[in-house]
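Contributing: when you submit paired examples, paste them exactly as shown. First protein:
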Amino acid sequence: MQGVWKSGTALRVGKKRAMTESERLSHDWFPKPLPDNVEIGAGSWLYSAFAFLHYRSLRPCGVRIGHDTGIYNGTFFDLGACGEVVIGDHCTLVGAIIATNRRVSIADYVFIAHEVTIADDFVACPPTDSGQANRLAAETCVSIGRGAWIGARAVLLSGAHIGPGAIVGAGCVVSTDVPACSVVAGNPARIIEKPPVKT
C-alpha cells in the first residue's frame, strides 16, 4: 500500500503506525496528506485530512487514534507545537474541535456529540506557540473517562476531568472534575444526578 490510505481497511492488517508524509485518504477531497506524526488504528475512520488544517504539533505522535474509532465531519485537531491528543478504541467524535497546546486524553468507548469544544483556554483558538515540543512532557489539561458521553455543544476547558460513564449535558461548560457515572448540566456545570450509593 503506497500513497493512499483507505479508512477502516488498510490498517486492519497490522498494528497502529504513523502515517507517512505522502499518505492520503482514498476518499479525501482535501489535497494535502495526513501529518506524519498521526497514528490511526485498524478499522478507524477519519473524514478528511482537513481535520488537521490548524495542526502544528511537533510531538513524535501528536494524535493517536485507537482502533474502530470514527472521526466524523467537522472534527478539527487545532494543536500547538506541544499539543497531543490520545483517543481510545471504539470512540465516536462528531464535529468536535480540540484546540490545545497540552494533552487531551479520551478513553475507550467515548461518544462526543456535534460541535463540542475541548480547549486548554477559554479563547479556544488554534495555538500559535512554536515552543520546543519535546522539552517538557505534555501536561494533561482535559481527560474523558471510559464510556463517557459528551452532549452537543458542550465546552470542556482545562481542568475538566470527566469520570468513567459520566454524562455531560448539551451546552454544558465544564472546567472541573465530573465524578464517574454522574450527570452534569448547565453553565457552569453542576451535578444533577449522582450514581446510586451501594449499601
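Second protein:
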Amino acid sequence: MELVIRPRTSKAVFVVIAGLGFVATGVFILKSPPHIRGETLVGWAGIVFFGLCAVIGIVSLWPGSTYLKLNDQGFTMCGMFRPHSYLWSEVGAFRVRRLLLIQKIVAFDFSEDYTRGSSLRKLNFRIGGFQAAIPNLYKKAPEEIAAIMNDYCQRAGCSA
C-alpha cells in the first residue's frame, strides 16, 4: 500500500511573499540617493539572497517538487525535485525531536548495515542526537508522520 504525504503550501507562500518584499526593499535601497557607504552592496546582497529565497519558495509550490512517499519497501523524501529513497531495512525507529527548540521534525537513525554518508551521519548525531530527519513541511503533524512511518517500518520487519 502506497501513501503520499503532500507539503503544506502556507510556508512556501510566506517565503515567496517575504522574499519578494525584501527584493523590493533592495531595489528601493539602490534607487534612493546614497547616504551611507556600502548601501549599494547591501541592496544587491538583499536582492540576490532574497530573490533566491523567493525562487526556492516558487519551486516548492510546483506540483511534485516536494513529497513524502511510503510503500511496503521503504520511503522517499523529495524536496526541490531531488528524491532520496531508503529501504525500511536501512532505518530504525522514527521519533519527533525539536530542532533549535522551535521546529519539530521526524528524526531517525540508520541501521548498522547502512554505509552511505557515514561522516555526515556521525556529525548529525553529535549535533542533534539523531542521524537524519524529515523536515516539518507536510500537511500532517510530525507526531502523526512518525507514527505512520513506524507502522510501515514494523510491518516490513525493521527494528522500529
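If you have annotations for the second protein, write them as plain sentences, like these:
DSSP finds four helices and seven strands in the chain.
The CA atoms of residues 84 and 96 lie 20 Å apart.
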